[in-house]
Amino acid sequence: YSVTIFEAAPIAGGMLSLGIPEYRLPRSVGQAQIREILETGDVTLKMNHAAGRDFTIRELRERGFDAVVLAVGAHRSRDLSIPGVDLDGVHKGIDFLLNANLGYRFTIGKKVAVIGGGNVAMDVARSAAREVLKQHRPDEAIPSDESISAVATHEMMDISLSALRLGAREVSIVCLERREEMPAALEEIEEAEVEGIVMRDGRGPKRVLGKDGKVTGLETVRTRSVFDSTGRFNPTFEENSESTIECDTVILAIGQAPRLDFLSPEDGVEISGRGLIVADKN
User: Fold this and answer.
1) How far is 88 from 95, CA to CA, in rounded Å?
2) For the residues 121-142, what does the mean pLDDT come to?
3) What pLDDT is attached to residue 137?
4) I need a surface site. Which of 58, 96, 111, 251 has the fewest CB within 10 A?
């Protein structure tokens, strides 16, 4: 089969290029694999072609494609329903990563609280630490992006850690789970800690605090348990255990979901109650 790839973004690779930070997956690796695919022949890549905007699934079928594969990933951050999430300074994790990886300007404060305990939360926190370093560099002694990327991994972590300790800036992760329960891989947690990320585990977000429409802090409550006796996700919290984390930026990284609003009834694609495409497992 000859294959046509319709890519909504201005660059190819999906989450490998847009969602995973450079320090975890060098861009050169992804781009080399993309070139290999395109050089096999009979593969056409069309950038900036978004389903629902530039074409519909029904139209692709009408144009004579033998099969249509939907591989749109999970580019939508899950929402958190607590007071204050509409304040200036609250961002969604995937949006933050997409902006950072595309090189768009993304203003970040000096004290950042990332809500979530998974691998994406670790990526967001470590990327945020680098943005804090870039945007709030205290003096010219701090190495540039180019010099940081040129040194070995452990040296880079040491530089990030040292930079974070200069002045009153910090990036912290707030998650319901205790450290040993966090869904992120242990090595991700340890690497984040080495870089100076503060782990505020066993705490749930209660509300985002603000003044004049801008974030000033995050009120949290201590977690009693995350799962019930059947192993189902059902967090409970200790009474009168509120505490406040001072911050000017809050980034939500509590999970992802596919964005499927480009599908219409005419496309004939069934969506499940969980918001996923219904597929035959066999």
Assistant:
1) 15
2) 71
3) 62
4) 58
